[in-house]
Amino acid sequence: MLEQTLRAYLSSKPEAIEDYPFGPDAAVYKVQGKMFALVFVQQGECRVNLKCDPQEAMELRHVFDAVLPGYHMNKRHWNTVRLDGSLPPGEIERMVDNSYRLVVNGLTRAQRRGLALRTGQSFR
């Protein structure tokens, strides 16, 4: 997946906001002020940090060489994914969807309810 395609997909998530709190080289994607993705370039390669269930995070690291422990993140709950073209089609999107869902599920009930009302989607 190309960087611009990834950024467009991240921005398409309901109420996703792109922010640059760490400077112009690291794009943070948030929902309700909580980060669900961080896009950056390291060693000339685009990478994205995504939140993940700890068990699944370990499994993904064993299955895919492009999935690493989260760079500058809690390595138990975050993975860094190298956008090197080695992942099967749809896998990065699935990981993004999962990260977004985990973050939304961690919001307060009132925040989730407001998000659902504003977007017409159900969040549990």
Give a quick precis of the structure:
This protein is of the alpha+beta class and 124 residues long. It contains four helices and six strands; from the N terminus they run αββββαββαα.
Account of the protein in words:
The structure is a single chain. The protein is 36% helix and 27% strand. By secondary structure, it is of the alpha+beta class. The chain has one domain (3-119): Aspartate Aminotransferase, domain 1, CATH 3.90.1150. The mean pLDDT is 94.
Termini, distance in Å? 28 Å
Structural class: alpha+beta
The overall pLDDT average reads: 94
H/I helix tally: 4
Give the fraction of residues assigned to helices.
25-40%
What is the domain total for the residues? 1
What are the segments in which pLDDT stays under 50 over at least 5 consecutive residues? none
Which CATH architecture is right?
Alpha-Beta Complex
**Oligomer designation:** single chain
CATH topology category name: Aspartate Aminotransferase, domain 1
Topology as a string of helices (H) and strands (E)? HEEEEHEEHH
Reconstruct the topology from this structure.
Layout: H1 3-11, E1 17-19, E2 26-31, E3 34-42, E4 45-51, H2 54-63, E5 67-69, E6 78-82, H3 91-105, H4 109-119
Antiparallel strand pairs: 1-2, 2-3, 3-4, 4-6, 5-6
What brief labels describe this structure?
about 25% strand, about 120 residues, Aspartate Aminotransferase, domain 1, six-stranded antiparallel sheet, globular, single chain
